[in-house]
Every structure is written in structure tokens, then in C-alpha cells.
Amino acid sequence: MTKQTERIFTCPWWLLFTFDNPLRKLVHDPLKILSPFVKPGDTVLDVGCGMGYFSLGLAKLVGEKGKVIAADLQPQMLAGLSKRAKSAGLESRIQPQLSQLDRIGVNEPVDFVLAFWMVHEVRRRREFLQEVHGLVKPGGKFLIVEPIIHVTAADFERTIALSREIGFTTGNSPRVAASRAVCFQKPTLG
Fold first, then answer.
1. 3-state per-residue secondary structure call for the chain
2. Is-contact 26 40, C-beta < 8 A?
3. Which residues have CB under 8 Å from 48's CB, separation 6+?
4. What is the pLDDT of the chain when averaged over all its residues?
5. Could you give the domains of the chain?
6. Is the pLDDT of residue 177 over 60?
7. Using one digit for the tens of pLDDT, what is the confidence trace for 87-111?
8. 144 vs 154: CA distance, rounded Å
9. What local confidence, expressed as pLDDT, does residue 151 receive?
10. CA-CA distance, 185 to 111, in Å (whole number)?
11. Per-residue exposure over 40-75, b if at least 16 CB sit within 10 Å of its own CB, e if not
């Protein structure tokens, strides 16, 4: 598959306004979903952050001493995120990261990774999961949430099995509306 073909599967930035709006909080409240996994001072990665719907919630949870690395393939998404972060007074806690098709592009260890409704868009899933595994600190967590309208139970189970092969263990998984969700943990050393 060529890079040009791969781009077709990425949610276009202009479509995000259809589901990234104030009403979404009634279904997907970022603080409610993410607070069991993130604490003040954490460094977290929001992969496929879009215009920052979950990045803003993560920035509130990590507090002034924490950091959110918000990674996306599309500069328009990151521009929207930066505008929203500034408006919310959270820009000092959020570091935008322009990713490549084959690499997230983050080099620092993180306590938590969120991949909300985006893993199904990844064409090289094993490589992606390996990169995430390399970024998560021992004892850190990785939450995958996928939309039930795009991801079958069988496909989700394949992603879980692949994540286990790579070295993640399965932890507590939240219930997320209209979604399939699993939280992984990277085993601690020793």
C-alpha cells in the first residue's frame, strides 16, 4: 500500500467537527474516562489527538507539573488543538507533535498513552504497537478505545492478542459508550 493510499484511511480534519463538539461530553466525558489512569505530574501521550478533545482533559488531569504530548498526522488538527489549548489556558501543558505515517515521532518515556478511535486507521499495527510499547514506562498504561461501528469484536481481539505478543499485559478496561476498550499495562522490571 502506498503512502498516498494510506492517507485515505485517516479521518480528515474537516470531518472532525461532526463528532468533536460540546455535545460529545454527554457520551464521552474525558475526565470520567481518563481519571482512573492519569495522575498529576504524569507525562502522557495522546496518539491521533485530532483537535484535542481528549488532550484538553488530559492536560487538566496531569496538572501544572505534568505534560501532554498530543500527536497527530495532520497539521490542521494540531493547529486546532493549539487554538483550543490556548483558549482553555492549557497551552503550557500540551506539546503538539506532528507524526509521520510510519512513526509517532516521540522519543521520551511516558506514563500513559491514549489511542482513542484511531488504532483501526493504523495500517502497520504491529510496528505501531511496538513503538508505543517502547515509549511506555515500566508500570505505565496504554488505553485503546475503538468505535464499535468500525471495529468488529474479532478485529479488536486481534489487536489485543498482538499487544500481548509485544509485551503488554491486560489490566482493567473501562466501559466507554459506543466503543470497545482495553487498558494494557507494561510490566515493571524485576
1. CCHHHHHCCCCCHHHHHHCCCHHHHHCCCHHHHHCCCCCCCCEEEEECCCCCHHHHHHHHHHCCCCEEEEEECCHHHHHHHHHHHHHHCCHHHEEEEECECCECCCCCCEEEEEEECCHHHCCCHHHHHHHHHHHEEEEEEEEEEEECCCCCHHHHHHHHHHHHHHCCEECCCCCCCCEEEEEEECCCCC
2. no
3. 71, 72, 73, 115, 116, 117, 118, 121
4. 89
5. 24-185 (3.40.50.150)
6. yes
7. 999 999 999 999 998 999 999 999 9
8. 15
9. 96
10. 10
11. eebbbbbbbbbbbbbbbbbbbbbeeebbbbbbbbbe
How big is the chain, counted in residues? Answer: 190
Query: What one-letter code names the amino acid at 75?
Result: P
